[in-house]
Automatic annotation (TrEMBL):
This is Extracellular solute-binding protein. Residues 1-21 form the signal peptide. Keywords: Cell membrane, Lipoprotein, Membrane, Palmitate, Signal. It holds the Pfam family SBP_bac_1. It comes from Streptomyces sp. SID7499.
């Protein structure tokens, strides 16, 4: 179900990731979400779905709405916090009741964005203002705005490694572990830290293969004729 241009414009101004454009995977939305010429005259209400139930309960989201209403005073904003965001939204997207602004569920294929969401602008225009907008672009139209961007990698204390007597960068797992042990015994510092309660930090060791040496093909080389799992390889 398409939104009016006035309401779509109000949605664009507050969009965390995307605005709904049609219902239940119907015909692709073609109406661009354009901001109204006079924000003060835009009227209506929008429902924002969010996984940040803590911010809804603390009143932080109300503060965001208050800032939004300084520009769009006649638009009523309602935040709906969902504990099982991915599960609930995936089901609701089979109906017309999945809010007006929402974070794009991971279960929605990128090519299906036009079936559920209104385009926020062209790829060229959006790239001038928003980073990573190409990640949600389909046929040169952008359907979502990134909430944040991350840079993966490792941070190490050069001075601490030097104090432990390690001046050459480790090139093997054994050298790395030996260096960590030297830090522990010679400096008393904690040699390695990660938020171990979560599982995702463990994948950084494979995700960042080749980062230190700037080798884009490092992962591909692991599938070469020499097995990386054999001793001495």
């Amino acid at each position: 179900m398409g939104k009016t241009k006035t309401l779509a414009g109000a949605i664009l101004a507050i969009a965390t990731l995307t605005a709904t454009g049609c219902s239940g995977g119907g015909a692709p939305s073609t109406e661009m979400a354009e901001a109204p010429a006079d924000p003060g005259e835009a009227t209506g209400s929008i429902t924002v779905l969010t996984q940040r139930t803590d911010l809804v309960q603390s009143g932080a989201m109300d503060a965001y709405a208050a800032e939004f209403n300084k520009v769009y005073p006649k638009i009523k904003v309602k935040f709906e916090g969902l504990t099982d965001y991915e599960g609930e939204v995936k089901i609701r997207m089979n109906t017309e009741d999945y809010g007006d602004v929402l974070m794009i569920p991971a279960s929605v294929s990128k090519n299906d964005y036009p079936k559920f969401f209104a385009p926020l602008g062209t790829s060229i225009k959006m790239a001038d203002k928003y980073r990573f907008s190409d990640k949600s672009a389909v046929d040169s139209k952008v359907y979502g705005i990134a909430q944040f961007g991350t840079a993966n990698g490792f941070v190490y204390n050069k001075a601490l490694w030097k104090k432990a007597g390690v001046t050459a960068w480790p090139t093997t797992p054994d050298e790395f572990l030996t260096g960590l042990e030297a830090i522990r015994t010679r400096t008393g510092a904690t040699p390695y830290y990660t938020n171990f309660k979560d599982g995702w930090p463990l994948v950084q060791w494979t995700t960042n293969v080749g980062s230190v040496t700037c080798d884009e093909n490092a992962t591909n080389k692991l599938a070469g004729p020499v097995s990386p799992w054999k001793e001495g390889s």
